[in-house]
Amino acid sequence: MMGTSVEIKIYNGYGHSKNLVVYGHVLKRKPKKASDFSKDGWKHTLSLLKLFFVRPVGSVRLRLHFYDQVIETIAEPDGFFKFKWASDIHLDPGLHDLKIGLVGKEELHGFTQGKVYVPHSTQYVFVSDIDDTVLISHSATVLRRLRELLIKNAHRRKLFSDHVLWYNLLSRSGTEMRHLNPFFYVSSSEWNLYDYLQSIFAHNKLPHGSFLLSHFKRWFDFFKTGKTGHDDKYRRISRLLRVFPKQKFVLIGDNSQRDPIIYAALAKDHPDRIAAIYIRNIKPKKAAITLQLFKNLQETEIQTCLFNTNREAINMLFPSV
To answer: What pLDDT does 225 receive?
Structure first.
């Protein structure tokens, strides 16, 4: 549903027949154009800042329609909502349509269309951080991170060399082209940046995946962007492990902040579910800490790798490429 002042924002859902989830926000703002994040100069800066000036509409009731099922929930005070349900019918792998609308708000009619992704039963699920893992973000330095956000549009943001090649190789690893491995991008970046990040990933032809981001921020917290509590990442990945109990997980991150600690904790708690951990060595001073965490996992069958360039990781997994 797109109105002049209210938007139900739906993020890509995921799951399987018995365990489906979709997230979103109810926001008060004017619709934006899809081209906003390809604009250059001050137009891009203005478009990005607007993402933090939207106002959430909280504590409203929403209704989800999925095939013949109807499910209701109430948005949290910050406008965030989550639907969790089991399908009444078997779902084939692929994208399935859904729609969500407000209940009891006659002046706001219609629905927002969304989708939920049911992956094929592949061998692996890949979970990747974004900032300083995929994108050069300088996330450990506030001013440099803000400069990347405010100055560079979605077409100018730089990825690490060979990153598109590496992730597309991973998406096809051990499976068929029509049954690609699912990707989940779990980040401390806020839901405000969802459209911006989607534009970057689509422009660079990175593997399609679901984004799991951090709590929505208002304009007065803009300078804290990317600084949401990282421990929440553990909870989000744990849920993925529960939703996809038959797949092995590969965790990819960097050592600029807390990825090594979070991933090591997940490996300790789920040693039979984590196949590998790959950490980009963004902070050489933290390399010893990362290697010590890896050493603690030596008694498991989990493959670990601290790498400086994507080519190192590619050569380890795909030596013939």
So the answer is: 55
Identify the burial level of 292 via C-beta atoms within 10 angstroms of its C-beta, where 0-12 means exposed, 13-18 middle and 19 or more buried: exposed
Asked if the model's pLDDT at residue 104 lies above 50, the reply is yes
Query: At 17, is the secondary structure helix, strand, or coil?
Result: coil
| DSSP assignments along 114-133, one per residue | EEEEE----SEEEEE--BTT
Q: Are 106 and 115 a contacting pair, CB within 8 Å?
A: no
Are the C-beta atoms of residues 81 and 62 closer than 8 Å to each other? Answer: yes
Query: What b/e sequence results for 108-131 when a residue is b if at least 16 CB atoms lie within 10 Å of its CB, and e otherwise?
Result: beebbebebbbbeebebbbbbbbb
Rounded Cα distance, 23 and 36, in Å: 23
pTM for this model (two decimals): 0.90
Residue of 214, 213, 212, 211 whose CA lies nearest to 228: 214
Point out the least confidently predicted range of 105-119, 169-183, 249-263: 105-119
The structure tokens listed for 241 are 């492990």
